[in-house]
Design goal:
- Strand 19 and strand 20 form a beta hairpin.
- 33% of the residues lie in helices and 22% in strands.
- It has 558 residues and is of the alpha+beta class.
- The chain is globular, with a radius of gyration of 25 Å.
Length: 558
């Protein structure tokens, strides 16, 4: 078995910090009657056991617990986890694991998802740590990896260009190499090349998709670290360069600015899945909460130098204007282009998607303002939406289609043409900070940023545990939000929140809520922004009297 090759200097230190912190949690967490820590997701047991084992066998870590005992505990959990695999050839989902394990893990039915990523990570862990495992666990790993290979779960074509197929492609390369399966290896190489060619030409159909973007990164980093063929390894490096460039374009100190095609509660309303960012960039404090541990402490590929330089030295604001297309294999017609916008400064970011797109499970985040990830505030996003299918109180996701938008630098205008018979309330999320409340406006300071929030109606505030929720009834209506850094405000002679509130209250937008729904706003920089929509008119977004054009948007962004 090979030894774990450490990432360079600061990256290695941050990975060891993650390993140490998760190992502490694993060692302290009581085991359930099943001998596992978790019944919610089988993979969490594998991840925690991996970290606890890695810490226990690392002489460079000073641990507050006994090493051998911790090692045995990790091995016991890992063995119990591995043995949950369906090991009966010819049965449905042979070679797979269950996902949810409640109430009795050994009776849980196999599920198609866990093996997609865990199967490849098992191979990686066994290569780097297998010689240190006890004999029984070594045999269990070896047997499980054989079942995974023979299951052929990865033998699927690249059609949707999403995270599932990314993991299949990586698995083809990993298991093709491991089992000297030249046909499988060739299939994996072709799938990799096809995927890379498509996303370079068309963009990623899963724009800002979290946490699944990190499955792309983990799967291909895992394959890259295990690959021996220099040609395939170079292509995997090109894929990872592309992925980290994509990440870097929307990066702000752990935050992912702008729109997301999907997001789970640990990524909306707050950026919570930040471990890979922390290892790669290290420009924010590692949060106490780590909802997706996965393999950020083990897998590493250094992002291109120009990507790191750009995101770690944001001297001037940048606009990112990207275009992509969804993939619908059953529809041969060319799919319409969709356009995303982001404006990123050193203190905050703003942006979103111009078009509304139907997404899986209706988990799209259409637009948001983002603050850096910081212990100063639990939620680092500000946004508004009209609740749609899947929404329930306390989970500010699942937006309806009833919203029109205008993005321009630090301002976002939204109109909500909600038809009669639909819920007439919109929901907003505000980071906790200092807020001045007016009858139809809020002016606030969170982090190093002032926000001006204008509504066409009155509103109510609910103090949630991690954020303030705004509820405004009486739609159709609209919302305008603009942000400015405290530093820039000071340069404009605005030295505190009350002065900011007074100055921006004097420049409130004008709303029309009749047959034509419209808003006009003069932003901090003096630009005139106008957005209008109606049942019998096309939506129009104007900047200083001229229609805003999206023709300059490109796949690579600008």
């Amino acid at each position: 078995m090979g030894e774990l090759k450490s990432a360079p200097g600061p990256y290695q230190a941050r990975q060891k910090e993650i390993i140490y912190n998760i190992a502490i949690r694993a060692e302290q967490r009581p085991l359930l009657d099943s001998g596992l820590w978790f019944h919610d997701d089988v993979r969490n047991n594998f991840y925690y056991a991996s970290y606890l084992f890695a810490a226990a066998v690392d002489p460079g870590l000073e641990l507050p617990f006994e090493r051998e005992e911790a090692k045995r505990k990790a091995e016991a959990v890992m063995l119990e986890t591995v043995l949950l695999q369906n090991r009966q050839p010819g049965t449905r989902l042979y070679g797979h694991w269950p996902l949810g394990l409640h109430p009795l893990p050994r009776e849980a039915a196999p599920h198609e998802l866990p093996v997609e990523i865990m199967g490849s990570l098992l191979v990686w862990f066994f290569k780097h740590y297998g010689s240190r495992l006890n004999a029984g666990l070594r045999i269990a790993f070896h047997t499980a990896i054989g079942h995974i290979y023979r299951s052929g779960f990865y033998r699927k074509p690249v059609v949707h260009l999403g995270h599932h197929e990314a993991k299949y492609t990586a698995a083809k390369l990993i298991f093709g190499r491991l089992f000297d399966d030249e046909a499988l290896l060739a299939d994996g190489r072709q799938s990799l090349e096809n995927t890379l060619a498509y996303i370079r030409e068309k963009g990623m159909p899963e724009y800002g998709s979290l946490p699944w973007f990190w499955h792309w990164v983990q799967a291909f980093t895992c394959a890259w670290s295990l690959e021996e063929d220099i040609g395939i390894k170079n292509t995997l490096g090109e894929m990872l360069d592309y992925l980290w460039n994509e990440r870097g374009q929307f990066y702000l100190q752990g935050a992912w600015a702008g729109t997301h095609s999907r997001g789970l509660p640990h990524d909306v309303p707050a950026d919570g899945n930040v471990l890979h960012d922390y290892v790669q960039f290290g420009d924010f404090q590692l949060p106490q909460s780590m909802p997706r541990t996965e393999y950020a402490g083990f897998l590493f590929y250094e992002a291109p130098a120009q990507v790191r330089a750009a995101v770690l030295n944001r001297q001037n604001p940048v606009e990112v204007t990207k275009v992509t297309q969804k993939v619908h294999p059953e529809d041969p017609k060319p799919q319409p282009l969709i356009h995303s916008y982001a404006y990123i400064t050193g203190s905050f970011a703003a942006g979103g998607l111009w078009e509304r797109v139907e997404e899986f499970d209706n988990e799209q985040l259409r637009w948001a303002f983002s603050l850096p990830v910081s212990p100063e505030y639990a939620v680092n996003r500000l946004y508004f939406f009209h609740p749609g299918q899947g929404y329930h109180e306390g989970d500010p996701r699942h937006q309806s289609r009833y919203m029109e938008v205008l993005y321009h630098r630090s301002a976002i205008l939204s109109l909500f043409p909600v038809p009669e018979g639909e819920a007439d309330t919109i929901i907003g999320v505000l980071p906790k900070g200092e807020w001045v409340k007016e009858s139809s406006a809020l002016f606030g300071k969170a982090g190093d940023v002032y926000f001006a929030v204008y509504l066409s109606r009155g509103y109510q505030l609910i103090d949630r545990e991690a954020y303030l929720e705004v509820s405004a009834q009486g739609m159709p209506g609209g919302v305008v939000v603009e942000a400015i850094s405290v530093k820039e405000a000071m340069e404009r002679g605005i030295s505190d929140l009350m002065l900011f509130a007074a100055e921006r209250a004097a420049h409130a937008p004008s709303f029309e809520t009749g047959a034509i729904l419209a808003v006009q706003y003069n932003n901090i920089e003096g630009d005139q922004l106008q957005l209008s929509t109606g049942e019998h008119i096309a939506t129009q977004a104007l900047l200083n009297g001229s229609p805003i054009s999206l023709e300059h948007y490109t796949v690579s962004g600008s």
